[in-house]
Specification:
Helix content is 45%, strand content 26%. By secondary structure, the protein is an alpha/beta fold. Strand 4 and strand 5 (111-119) form a beta hairpin.
């Protein structure tokens, strides 16, 4: 949509309808500034690399996973490394990749994304790769003690990559899953 220069209000409405997220006018301006002229995956990766760290995993000549973190995200993690929340949004883009977000929280409970990853598949192998790249990009992760998540595959991967960390299930997702099961049983 950015490429075709739709109006700001159309773009904001489309993002809200598809993802339930509000974009400010400033967000739209920044998106257009950053991605307006991008035409290829190589250009996107180059653009991301110029502002932070990027790691990819490929097979059969196709990219399976893209991990990236901007310099300010890395600095935020280094300031608040203790608790990391992992969440994914299933197939939210035109190529069908899942978007993983790794979020750190400050001392007041405010969260900020410290790394994004696009994965073709949500399996243990790819999520483990994402977590290994998280360690590589962030540098020292010894102070990370807790991971909050809702995903069984992520739990297995965290146990492999961060065996010293405690795993906590996200209460929001647990309650939502419980509600779905209860209502499905009543139908």
């Amino acid at each position: 949509m950015i490429k075709y220069m739709v109006s700001t209000s159309e773009l904001r409405d489309a993002v809200f309808l598809k993802f339930g997220k509000f974009l400010s006018r400033k967000d739209v301006v920044k998106l257009r500034e950053v991605f307006g002229g991008v035409k290829s995956m190589a250009e996107v990766l180059q653009l991301l690399s110029s502002s932070g760290e990027v790691r990819t995993k490929s097979s059969n000549g196709q990219i399976d996973v893209i991990c990236f973190s901007l310099q300010q995200q890395i600095k935020f993690f280094q300031s608040f490394p203790e608790v990391i929340c992992i969440d994914s949004t299933y197939k939210t883009n035109k190529v069908g990749f899942s978007l993983f977000q790794l979020v750190a929280t400050d001392g007041c409970g405010n969260g900020a994304c410290v790394m994004f990853a696009f994965c073709q598949r949500e399996n243990v192998v790819d999520i483990t790769f994402v977590l290994e790249m998280f360690k590589a990009i962030m540098g020292c992760t010894n102070a990370t003690r807790t991971f909050v998540m809702d995903n069984c595959q992520a739990e297995i991967s965290v146990q492999q990559v961060f065996p010293h960390c405690r795993i906590v299930l996200c209460s929001f997702h647990v309650l939502r899953a419980f509600g779905r099961k209860v209502f499905d049983c009543n139908s």
